[in-house]
User: Fold this.
Amino acid sequence: MEKFVFVHGSWLGAWCWDKVSGILHEKGFQTLAIDLPGHGNSTEPIEGQDIHTYAAAIVKILEAQEEPVILVGHSMGGMSISEAAAMVPEKVKKLVYVAAFLPKDGEANNYYGDIKGIQPMDWISMGHANIGVVLNEDETVMTLTPDFAVPALYNDIPEEIGRALCNLHGPDTIASPYTAVHLNEEFDKIPKYYVKCSQDGILTVDIQEKMLAATPVKKLYVLDAGHCPYISRAGELADVLEEVQKD
Assistant:
């Protein structure tokens, strides 16, 4: 039985997978949720991180596993797991994208100007305009304000719970969403599964459908959930992952 390795998205940490991991543990599955460098309980600084450093950290985890795993990514984590899988495809049995970016080679999360990406987003301009983003002094690191994060990430749970979750958020680098991934033919061969969230307030349905049209997956699951179904639909998401494991 393959182990599930969970990778979080921007501003988050391994903690976001706690509910799903707990349910899967009760079903007898092995799970491992990791903190990317500069996130959660990581002791590394957030400064200087990007998709490449995140992917390298995931590769170290994968190389320590005895058997190939089911690698699961949320949001920006879809970029990180993709590049990591391309680097050590022999360590990845299946890839699962949960409301996650599903890239082609050379794409970044976001784009503006000449940057090739999936979703238009100019985080620095948002920071300048005080639209949900707070920048550090040299504009290399950003944090989200609760007023932006709650409707974007937690629109399908009570507002007070969403605001409490915002207290667990940390910073992320401006570089991360604009880092193009390096993929290859070995990555293309790994079976891919996608969990589309119909109420997603940040990676909207049209963007999810655009990615799925560009990169067909083995199976598509749809949850009536916002961007973070591991919080609002943990049981349903765990059921989906159990199906993926058995497929």
